[in-house]
Write a structure and sequence with these properties.
The chain has helices at 2-15, 19-47, 57-75. It has 84 residues and is mostly helical. The radius of gyration is 19 Å and the shape is elongated. The model has no long low-confidence stretch (mean pLDDT 77).
Length: 84
Amino acid sequence: MPVFASVALIFVGRRDTDLKAATLGRRLVKWGILTFVSFAVVFEGLIFNRYLSFGVGAFVLPLVLIAAGVFMLVRVGLFTNSRG
């Protein structure tokens, strides 16, 4: 979905002759596609791989991914009270 918004930014930049918007749109398209491919490789190669679906590997990888997600949420301060 973010890639489509980036493509729209490219079209708006070209229509309004705004070079910054068009360049930003192209950059966002590249990063969006790279992110999509990276997650596809992780999910298809590691999570849905039948070699990790038994024994300790069946529990370690999901726990590592959950821990990484919780760490990222805590790091940005999602669970803190921002009202002071």
